[in-house]
Write a structure and sequence with these properties.
This protein is about 40% helix and about 15% strand. The protein is α+β, with helices and mostly antiparallel strands. The chain folds into 2 domains: about 270 residues, Amidase signature (AS) enzymes, CATH 3.90.1300; about 210 residues, Amidase signature (AS) enzymes. The strands form 3 sheets. The protein has a 12-stranded mixed beta sheet with strand order 1-2-4-3-7-9-8-15-16-12-10-11, with helices on both faces.
């Protein structure tokens, strides 16, 4: 098989597979969960070669429509699949993710595979080593099939850049995929691969997960080592899993978690039994969930409100005690922006000075905005970050988890401008971040685990997400509650057309 690459929205040649299967069988194979595929591989009911062939063929077929890849590694993936098949047939010990396809966001380093950060100046960048999270997945037997799209350096909630164009939503090509891990969520939602590495600096995993109807977890700080964080001590960005099911997220967490000397917050953090804990056993009796629809003054669409209330009813039906909390003090976009944009200014001001003509207007504008933040402003924002952490800790001393909508409305139009107005139920609002995802940024600042789960659909047919937030380092417990919630509906049976 030839190695296929896409830069921009270029159609590639046909992927040649090693065996021919009926289209329906191939599609069904692509939509099996990683957990189910893992069991079938171990029982020699399906071959890693069959799986890899199927997902590569699906990627090639859907790429012109969805534009969710920057690079597809056909030749390398098939070689890895043949080696994985050999080990299965030789009854050799198999890793946790043996033979399972995975995609990696184009902001996360992959040894020998182009990693462009979605930016024209890095269009030919090939890392010399894997990020720690990628290395752990490969060590567990996962097969890298390609790099998924990102806006430049993961800098916004919409997945587009001058390098590759726009990534379209898996459910409706007229809608945005969300961002910045839009390619990862679209690839998972559309059945191209069951597992994806994403990143999250302000909601970049959870936003596209909600837009595309998949599971997106931002784990607790330190649970998965982050080897590319330049400020490891003040870090608020995460390398994360995106999957179609909670069980698959637990599977990825089991492989990715664990300390590494590169990340001080990971040292000494134990790795629990994510897989066993995430099984949907028991109920939620004895657990209190505190909920809030939005911070004061932030709108929520009627569709999201309806889905959120229904989600609370499902949690109550599982036995949880519910209590509303005030959203006062949680509208933290100015704090997040002061910290985040200052980091970007330090990282990218030289790049903008030298290559501003090939970078997007939105990216350049965000770097420029950081010039208004003084050193005192930055430190005040860091003080506010600590106060926010303590406020969340106080809430979670009263309850076991928090619940809120992931987004205030369904996926935005495909041509949405980051600095444009946002429409919610016919009303126009002046900025995207605080009005669309007020609830994702706080937990990047505090480090608490937060997950977006599919919880319904709007009248426009687009997915809606519920965000649950757990106690600090209580990731396994959060996954358990998420699994029970997931099992309480039949949303997993719905697929994008």
């Amino acid at each position: 098989m030839r190695r296929q690459k896409w830069t921009g929205e270029v159609r590639a040649g046909k992927v040649r597979t090693s065996r021919s299967e009926p289209a329906l069988m191939s599609d069904d194979l692509c939509f099996l969960s990683a957990t189910e595929l893992r069991e079938r591989i171990a029982r020699k009911k399906v071959s890693p070669v069959e799986i890899t062939s199927a997902v590569l063929a699906r990627a090639e077929a859907l790429q012109p429509e969805l534009n969710c890849f920057i690079t597809l590694c056909g030749e390398e993936a098939m070689a890895a699949a043949r080696e994985a098949e050999r080990k299965v047939m030789s009854d050799e010990p198999l890793g946790l993710l043996h033979g399972l396809p995975v995609t990696v966001k184009d902001i996360v380093n992959t040894k020998g595979v182009k990693t462009t950060f979605g930016a024209v100046p890095y269009k030919d960048n090939v890392p010399a080593e894997d990020a720690v999270a990628v290395a752990k997945l490969r060590s567990a037997g996962a097969i890298l099939i390609g790099k998924t799209t990102t806006p430049e350096f993961g800098s916004k909630c919409l997945t587009d850049s001058p390098l590759f164009g726009r990534t379209r939503n898996a459910w409706d090509a007229r809608r945005s995929s969300g961002g910045s891990s839009g390619g990862a969520a679209v690839a998972v939602a559309s059945g191209i691969a069951p597992l994806a590495i994403a990143t999250d600096g302000g909601g970049s995993t959870r936003i596209p997960a909600a837009c595309n109807g998949v599971v997106g977890l931002k784990q607790s700080n330190g649970v998965i080592a982050h080897s590319q964080a330049l400020d490891a001590f003040g870090n608020h960005t995460y390398v994360t899993p995106t999957t179609r099911t909670v069980a698959d997220t637990a599977l990825m967490m089991q492989a990715m978690a664990g300390e590494d000397a590169c990340d001080p917050w990971s040292i000494g953090v134990p790795v629990p039994d994510f897989i066993g804990t995430a099984a949907p056993r028991g109920d939620l009796r004895g657990r209190k969930i505190l909920f809030c629809a939005s911070p004061p003054g932030r709108p929520v669409s009627s569709d999201v409100t309806t889905a959120f209330r229904a989600s609370l009813d499902r949690l109550a039906g599982l036995g949880a005690e519910l209590e509303e909390f005030s959203g006062e003090g949680y509208d933290v976009e100015p704090i997040w922006r002061a910290i985040n944009h200052t980091v970007w200014r330090s990282r990218f001001s030289k790049l903008v000075a030298e290559h501003g003509d090939v970078l997007s207007e939105a990216f350049v504008k965000q770097i420029a905005l950081a010039t208004d933040v003084s050193g005192v402003d930055y430190q005040d924002a860091m003080f506010a970050r600590t106060a926010l952490f303590r406020r969340v800790q106080s809430l979670l001393a009263r309850g076991h988890l928090l619940a809120m909508p992931t987004l205030t409305r369904t996926a935005l139009p495909i041509d949405q401008d980051l600095f444009g107005r946002i429409e919610i139920d016919g009303q126009q609002f002046d900025s995207v971040r605080p009005h669309w995802f007020p609830w994702t940024m706080p937990f990047n600042m505090t480090g608490h685990p937060a997950i977006s789960l599919p919880c319904g659909f709007g009248r426009d047919g687009m997915p809606i997400g519920l965000q649950l937030v757990g106690r600090f380092r209580g990731d396994a417990e959060l996954l358990h509650v998420s699994a029970l919630f997931e099992a309480s509906s039949d949303l997993l049976s719905r697929r994008p057309a």
